[in-house]
Amino acid sequence: MLKRLYDWTLSMAQHPRALWALALVAFIESSVFPIPPDILMIPLIVARPKDAFKIAFVATLASVAGGMLGYFIGYGAFETIGRPVLEFYGKDAYFDEFKETYNQYGAWAVLIAGVTPFPYKVITILSGATALSLPVFIAASVVARALRFFIVAALLWKFGEPIRDFIEKRLGLMFTLFIILLVGGFAVVKFL
pTM for the complete prediction? Predict the structure, then answer.
């Protein structure tokens, strides 16, 4: 089934309404869909390089809107489903401790998940479940998703098809290494 979803998503790049399909995929990927919008965005930009930044903007906007849906899923479902389960097992106090710690660093979690291969949808739902400040969530989401999608768009706009293989196979790793170095740098500065 996942292969069929992947093939369908990829085939949408040739559709006349591909930009709408990208918006839909970016929206639902941020809360429930397993296929990242890059799968549609990359061939779409290769086919229409002059629209690269418009495509990145649509992906960013739709992804952040979908992230807000994920946030509200976490916010609403936690109280009705999650908390009763934790109470049944006597673990609700642990969640309250986790919530406090998560909300202290939540903007970083959203930023990191938004640019790395870590599933962004997990963080959107978790942010709602812990009631992370909505403005903080939205701001971190906008920065993270714009960074991710506009870097991909810029690389494809500048280098075209030859950079496609690098992006598809290695860009997630590069973002992850960048975040590790960034967080490591902050940690070193903090402890010096």
Answer: 0.78
